[in-house]
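Researcher: Here's a chain I'd like modeled. Treat it as a single chain, no partners, no ligands.
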Amino acid sequence: MTGLEAGAVADAASVALDHEPVPASLVVDGAPTTGFAELTELDGAEVGVWEMTPGAMRDTEADEVFVVISGSATVAFDDPALAPIELSPGSVVRLTAGMRTVWTVRETLRKVYIAP
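Model: Modeled as a single isolated chain. Structure tokens:
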């Protein structure tokens, strides 16, 4: 955690993130990497920044709300079977624990998330 204190500001667009390759068992296409940084906690919920480079990966979601601040992607829902969503700067999304998704990132995607 970077320890964002009350009254402080963090530039989510430039927070340094250490990226790691997505495990091969989750890669659908390309060689995506992901990185994240927890910024603070709010009433027990984690607030942070997450980023994924171009490519496609499978994921099992946690409960979260996020706002995309840069990049573009499509999220397809395997379970439950929902229509895919398009992400771009300004997109606000709510995911629930256990959703199985496929993230296809066209331009490095960065989001600010809140997760219990």
